[in-house]
Design goal:
The protein is mainly α. The chain is about 70% helix and about 0% strand. It contains 14 helices and no strands. The protein has helices at about 20-30, 35, 50-70, 85-105, 105-150, 155-160, 160-230, 235-295, 300-305, 310-340, 370-445, 450-455, 460-465, 485-500. Helix 4 packs antiparallel against helix 7 and helix 8 packs antiparallel against helix 11 (about 370-445). The protein is flat. About 15% of the residues are buried. Residues about 1-20, about 35-60, about 65-80, about 445-470 and about 505-515 have low confidence and may be disordered.
């Protein structure tokens, strides 16, 4: 029996028993019946009948793949014309966007500088406003003093000569100075307020320009991505610049991961600090018990001749404290191990030991110690605990220093990535201009045929001879069978140049995974 299909629906194609289960999933998520029919070929411009032939081939391949290929067999990339043909189609728009971007300038940098100026002027205005209130109070007080000294006819008559006259003159002079100082301060405050208003207005203008700048930059990046993304063996300089951008971007990712790793390790070190404090306190309490009972000076049995003549009382007073300290020490070293697992630069903690419970005085173990031995063991443990305290403070201080270094290098790295992207954009622009000029010169000289030798001696012929085979390790870093591995190794090498990180144990050892 022949199963009939509706004419408007394509026949169901199966990919075999191994991949048939993926066909239904592909159709659920990619319902491209209408999309594939209306799909246009990628934008390009070619002269003469080449464009028509290329478009026909592209549409034919698209329709063939859409109708005769199962979803699980879509592993062949779509056809794209050569790079030089696609560049000519985008040249006018690329030129327009580049000119507009140059006219706008570096809006993000200007906005950041303007914001810093706003912060500075705002601080001055706030300080001067607080200072103005003090000056107003001082000026009012001097004026009131001067007015009280000459408020009546009798006072004016008495103030005409002698000491009162000098005091009245001095009060008048002080009132004038205070008023002049207040006036100067108010003038400076108004000037700073006007500057702040201009900065705020400039910020609003830059924010409006930033919207246009972002739109133009994003569109220009999309065009560059559509034209030059991946390996372009025709233009090796573009591959080298793109490799630099990818490496520095990856270094930026690793730097951010290193910063988060440092913060996590320092937080774990801080969490271990109260645990160590409790350990030291328990050991101190145990030592104080030994001192109070006379074990430290070997006077326990000379003072108490009848009662407390065995080691049981010493054990009952110190054993709970030792047990609690041993439990806390386990938590402490577990936290330190987590910190060292997060950050390899955290050093190994010094040795710390507590006496085992089965070796306490009165135990039947032949290696058990006496009360004096218990006291000496607790003294040693106390010294080791203090060494751990110094270790914690030293590692936290070192982590803070590394954090400051990471902050400084992160700020520098942002500028480096920005410069690398700007350089890549300039190179791609120069390539586009060179290709269009080359096509124009070829169009002008089309009536003068060139020989094969002349064509091979041209710069484009030299570039063609420098082509590397696909997926072949060569001088071009973008063409390699180990691209991701080379990118990771180069990024780690540059990260170690920026920050003091330990060297890997081997070439294949990935010591710095990206942890979100």
């Amino acid at each position: 029996m022949i199963k009939a299909h509706r004419p408007a629906v394509r026949p169901r194609l199966h990919s075999g028993p191994g991949n048939a289960m993926f066909d239904d999933v592909h159709e659920l998520f990619n319902d491209d019946d209408a999309a594939q029919l209306d799909q246009l070929p990628p934008p390009f411009a070619a002269a003469g009948t080449a464009a028509i032939a290329t478009a026909a081939v592209t549409l034919a391949m698209a329709n063939t793949n859409a109708s005769n290929t199962a979803p699980s067999e879509h592993n062949v990339p779509a056809y794209q014309p050569p790079l030089r043909q696609r560049i000519s189609g985008f040249h006018s728009r690329h030129t327009e966007l580049t000119a507009k971007l140059q006219a706008l300038g570096d809006i993000p940098a200007m906005l950041e500088t303007n914001q810093h100026d706003i912060f500075s002027v705002t601080g001055k205005v706030k300080t001067q406003e607080a200072r103005l209130k003090t000056l107003q109070a001082v000026s009012q007080e001097t004026r009131d003093t001067h007015a009280k000294m000459s408020s009546s006819f009798a006072k004016r008559m008495m103030n005409k000569r002698g000491n009162r006259s000098r005091l009245l003159f001095q009060a008048g002079t002080d009132a004038e100075k205070a008023a002049q100082q207040q006036a100067d301060h108010e003038a400076e405050l108004e000037r700073n307020r006007s500057i702040l208003a201009l900065k705020e207005q400039r910020k609003s203008q830059l924010q409006r320009d930033l919207v246009e700048y972002s739109a133009v930059s994003n569109e220009l990046d999309k065009i560059d991505h559509a034209l030059f993304d991946g390996s372009t063996p025709e233009f090796v300089q573009d591959d080298l610049a793109e490799w630099e951008v990818k490496v520095w971007t990856q270094v930026q990712v690793f730097m951010a991961a290193e910063t988060l790793r440092e913060k996590r390790a320092r937080q774990m070190l801080k969490d271990a600090s109260p645990i160590l404090v409790s350990i030291i306190k328990d050991i101190q309490t145990a030592l104080q018990f030994c001192i109070d009972s006379g074990v430290a000076r070997n006077q326990k049995y000379t003072k108490n001749l009848i009662s407390n003549t065995t080691a049981k009382s010493t054990v009952s007073g110190t054993q709970p404290l030792v047990l609690k300290a041993k439990t806390s020490s386990g938590k402490f070293f577990t936290t330190i191990a987590k910190a060292r697992g997060s950050q390899l630069l955290v050093e190994r903690p010094p040795e710390f030991r507590l006496i085992e419970l089965y070796l306490m005085p009165g135990s039947k173990n032949p290696k058990a110690v006496d009360e004096r031995g218990l006291h000496k063991s607790l003294e040693t443990s106390y010294a080791q605990a203090k060494a751990l305290d110094a270790y914690l403070k030293r590692e936290i201080a070192a982590s803070l220093e590394r954090q400051r270094k990471l902050a400084v290098e992160t700020a520098k790295l942002q500028e480096t990535v920005k410069d690398a992207r700007r350089h890549l954009r300039e190179i791609r622009r120069s390539i586009m201009v060179a290709v269009v000029q080359e096509d124009g010169s070829q169009y002008i000289r089309k009536e003068a045929p060139t020989s094969t030798a002349d064509h091979d001696s041209s710069p484009s012929g030299a570039a063609q001879r420098d082509y590397a085979l696909p997926l072949q390790d060569a001088a071009n870093p973008m063409i390699s069978t180990h691209f991701q591995e080379n990118l990771r190794k180069e990024s780690h090498a540059r990260l170690r140049q920026l920050v003091a990180l330990p060297e890997p144990e081997s070439d294949d050892d990935n010591l710095y995974p990206v942890i979100a």
